[in-house]
Design goal:
The chain is of the alpha/beta class. It has four helices and ten strands. The strands form two sheets. Strands 5-4-3-6-1-7-10-9 form an eight-stranded mixed beta sheet, with helices on both faces. The chain has a two-stranded antiparallel sheet with strand order 2-8.
């Protein structure tokens, strides 16, 4: 993966790092959905099959690549990859936004150059979590604070850690 290629993890997580519970987001914040749309519109989204299933359709104005181990899975309006490396190769030179879930975030974190995070000030129960970040690995470049959430932009201080083709789901 060329170093100038931008791979951005985009996620909303609670104070306890929860991102989901049984395939659902455990909060409803319309402004954050609008923020996600504004950040990703016109770009490529890479997500796992369970995340795609929870959304239920490709999101308008974005190319969607779904990562799944199931070789027979398919859905209208999306491209299918059978590993993260394959998904990133399909995306070619597009700016890629990795949109979850937990397994895909874990696989993509070593390759990410940027993160756009919504820190939701709640601690709901959940079965899906955002990965912990290494201290000193990321630098905050911008923060917008609201009473119920913070939007945070991060850039990687050190370069990506692994070649994309070594990360298979």
């Amino acid at each position: 993966m060329p170093s100038e290629r931008r791979v951005t993890l985009i996620a909303a997580y609670a104070d306890n790092r929860v991102i989901g519970d049984h395939g659902r987001i455990p909060w409803h914040i319309p402004e954050d959905f609008a923020h996600f749309k504004a950040e990703t519109l016109g770009h490529t989204l890479v997500m796992g099959r369970l995340t795609f299933d929870s959304i239920g359709r490709p999101l308008p104005g974005r190319r969607t690549i779904v990562v799944t181990r199931n070789r027979s899975w398919g859905a209208d309006g999306v491209e299918v990859a059978h590993g993260l490396g394959e998904a990133l190769a399909l995306a070619a030179d597009d700016e890629v936004y990795v949109a979850g879930g937990t397994q895909i975030y874990d696989l993509a974190l070593p390759l990410a150059t940027h993160q756009i995070l919504t820190e939701v000030h709640l601690s709901p129960p959940g079965d899906a979590h955002y990965p912990e970040l290494e201290a000193g690995e990321w630098q905050e470049t911008r923060r917008v604070t609201r009473p119920d959430l913070d939007w945070v932009w991060l850039v990687r201080v050190r370069g990506p850690q692994a070649p994309a083709d070594s990360l298979e789901a």
